[in-house]
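HOLO CASE FILE
Compound: cobalt (II) ion
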Amino acid sequence: MDIARILGKNQQWIAAKLNVDSKFFENLALGQSPEILYIGCSDSRVTAEELMGAQPGEVFILRNIANMVPNTDLSAMSIITYAVTYLKVKHIVVCGHYACGGGKAAMQSEDMGILNPWLRNIRDVYRIHKTELNAISDEELRYDRLVELNVQEQCINVIKTSDVQKAIKERNLTVHGWVFDIKTGKLKDLEIDFDHILEDIREIYRIV
Ligand code: CO
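Model generated. Tokens follow.
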């Protein structure tokens, strides 16, 4: 990727968009009403719009290392509130990906400075599901399962917020857990049974 050529590529992109729809940017400037909030990993191989075939204006996006939703992260909490309460998205997707470097880094005994508290959130996921994960002898499969369980736990973190609880109750907002398989390009719906999980956590996390 030649940095000097990016502005030229941008011109090509503009031309391609206008070729299909001459009012594309005029309409884009009018405002946004995305139906999906997508929370994914910052990994350069795991794009958001491109892998979903989405256009600008269709998806509100949060990306960070290992698609985390820490309960005290101001960025994640602000994005959820803005997307749910103001943009009124219909769906929230947490999308992890196999071979996630964040997950692997979290499993190493290495001092990574400011990354430590961030990655500790993934260590916490491991601790919660230690019995299941330790029973998987193949290291790669164990990491893959950790990626899936991390998605599940981050979905639970999404559901812990009062805005999401309100929207689930009042207008049937839905939360989805997905994993992107880098080796095949496929998006997999983990079909997490949120009703069951919600029932289980309601006792502790119910706010509204
Ligand atoms: Co990742």
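CASE NOTES: The two ends are 48 Å apart (CA to CA). Residues 41, 43, 66, 97, 100-102 surround cobalt (II) ion (CB under 6 Å).
CLOSED: yes
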